[in-house]
Design brief:
Elements (H helix, E strand, L loop, with lengths): L1 E5 L4 E11 L6 E5 L5 E7 L2 E3 L1 E4 L2 E5 L9 E10 L12 E6 L5 E6 L22 E6 L5 E3 L3 E6 L4 E6 L11 E3 L1 E10 L2 E10 L3 H7 L2 H13 L9 E5 L4 E2 L5 E3 L23 H8 L7 E3 L6 H19 L1 H12 L24 H14 L2 H14 L3 E3 L1 H10 L6 H9 L5 E7 L2 E7 L9 E5 L2 E5 L11 E4 L2
Parallel strand pairs: 1-11, 17-18, 18-20, 21-22
Antiparallel strand pairs: 1-2, 2-8, 3-7, 4-5, 4-8, 6-7, 9-10, 10-15, 11-14, 12-15, 13-14, 16-17, 19-20, 23-24, 24-27, 25-26
Helix pairs in contact: 2-3, 2-4, 3-4, 4-5, 4-6, 5-6
Bound molecules: zinc ion (ZN).
């Protein structure tokens, strides 16, 4: 991607060179680009190609014979006034802002909306590019920060060349332009030396140096729970932006006003949410769940948000203990609405339902109780990041992996909580020494072990089939 950004005119122009491997001998290639951006022309080996446009999709007729196994390139030239974000990062597009000194402060975000809002490419989550060179020409005196590592700066044109060496999901790609100053540190992590770099507005340097001390703390806690940071080669960055923040891979964007909580608020209402900077912890947590392990379809977005919201409690657990983390999870549980399933229909670019955050985190915590082994749970979280390293996944793959780590089959547990909005009700009675119990409001075959106490004596209803919603199951316990 090689573009020039003109904040004065809110205008961009440039090219994207797409290098691809031919999988089938087809002569048509889809490229996505959203209006009002316009394709100026498309070339292959210097020859201009024709294309047919249907909405955001452009079907390019390739003239050169496409032979299976070949590597080819097309160059898409495009320009225009891109869509402007109104409520970044929730709607997406370009945020054309100014800092307090009146200097341009520009950032892109596009989760859900798609990266074709700013770059011509094949806009689908199952298809991650292996690597990417991002070259952005910024106005003189300002700096561009994108993903990966800064390879060089072309002083004459003020063009910044960033290179991402790992697969990257399309919404992770971002352009940030501002009057940035830089500071950084070298972190000793599980995989060796990790460069951690910070780019903040000139006036915020001192505040950032204080607040971003939480970044290495975050790294320590998350490497403990999830395994090595997944992008050592590309470094880790926090980059200040004029919106709240986003999990842009290896250049996590930050706009939380240099304070703890979520814009100063505690989402859990327990006090624990004010012990950390929500955006540093949450958005960086996405490096493991969103950027390392990425959904193929946004309907499965709970895989990003459930695990990442859960990562907040793991951060608390690492520094303040298990009790504190449990309180935090119970706190955010109050925000669950339970009026719709978490997973939405597939193949229509429909994001999972909002409960994926608070309920998603609590589903995972509930599953941890089924596993009932903290070390194994940690190994499972680390195992997920190894098993699906730099991959795109479906929710099913994640569910199956989790299920494989425990005895018994808990497929129905995930179906119940992810695919219905019904909450199981545990009903029981005790009569003449007979303990009768059942779950209601559940799908067929629902199973979930419970720990109970009868007269102070603990019993585990662990591997019993307790799923029949019609009949009371009877078990004699004494
Ligand atoms: Zn998130």
């Amino acid at each position: 991607m090689d573009i020039s950004v003109d904040p004065e005119e809110k205008y961009i122009s440039g090219t994207n060179t797409i290098r691809y491997k031919v999988l089938n001998n087809n002569q048509v290639l889809q490229v996505d680009l959203q209006p009002p951006l316009n394709i100026d022309n498309i070339t292959q080996d210097g020859k201009t190609l024709s294309f047919e446009s249907k909405g955001n999709a452009h079907f390019v007729r390739l003239e050169k014979m496409q032979k299976e196994g070949d590597f080819n390139e097309i160059v898409v030239h495009y320009s225009g006034h891109p869509k402007e974000a109104v409520r970044a990062p929730w709607d997406g597009g370009f945020s054309w802002k100014k800092d307090e000194n009146g200097k341009h402060f520009v950032a892109t975000s596009c989760q859900g909306l798609g990266a074709s809002v700013s770059v011509a490419q094949y806009d689908h989550m199952y298809d991650e590019v292996d690597s990417m060179l991002i070259s952005v020409q910024a106005p003189k005196g300002l700096m561009n920060v994108s993903n990966g590592r800064l390879r060089k700066v072309d002083e004459n044109t003020n063009t910044y060349h960033w290179f991402v060496s790992s697969p990257i999901n399309n919404y992770g790609v971002n352009v940030n332009i501002g009057d940035y100053v830089h500071f950084g540190e070298s972190y000793k992590g599980e995989k060796g030396k990790l460069d951690m770099d910070y780019y903040v507005l000139r006036d915020n340097l001192e505040k950032a140096k204080e607040q971003f001390q939480q970044a290495p703390k975050m790294m320590e806690a998350f490497e403990h729970w999830f395994g090595p940071y997944p992008f050592y080669e590309d470094s880790f960055k926090l980059v200040e932006v004029p919106y709240l923040g986003m999990e842009h891979q290896s250049s996590v964007t930050y706009g939380n006003q240099y304070g703890n909580g979520y814009l100063g608020r505690d989402l859990s209402g327990t006090g624990w949410g004010l012990k950390f900077d929500y955006i540093i912890i949450h958005e960086a947590g996405h490096e493991w769940f969103a950027n390392n392990i990425t959904y193929k379809d946004i309907a499965d977005m709970w895989v990003h948000e459930g695990f990442t919201m859960y990562s907040e409690s793991l951060y608390i657990e690492y520094y303040y203990g298990k009790e504190a983390a449990a309180e935090y999870l119970l706190g955010i549980r109050k925000n669950i609405r339970n009026d719709r399933p978490l997973i939405d229909p597939y193949d229509v670019n429909k994001a999972g339902y909002g409960d994926m955050y608070n309920k998603g985190a609590n589903i995972l915590h509930t599953f941890r109780q089924i596993m009932d082994d903290d070390e194994k749970w940690r190994a499972t979280l680390r195992g997920l990041n190894e098993e699906f390293y730099h991959e795109t996944v479906t929710s099913k793959q994640i569910e199956n992996y989790l299920d494989d780590q425990v005895e018994g089959d808990f497929g129905t547990f995930f179906d119940q909580y992810l695919r219905t909005a019904n909450i199981p009700v545990f009903e029981y009675e005790i009569q003449d020494g007979i303990f009768k119990y059942r779950y209601t409001n559940v799908i067929d075959g629902f199973k979930m072990p419970l720990k109970i106490k009868l007269d102070g004596t603990p019993y585990g209803l662990s591997h019993l089939s307790i799923g029949n919603k019609k009949r009371l199951k009877e078990t004699i316990y004494r």
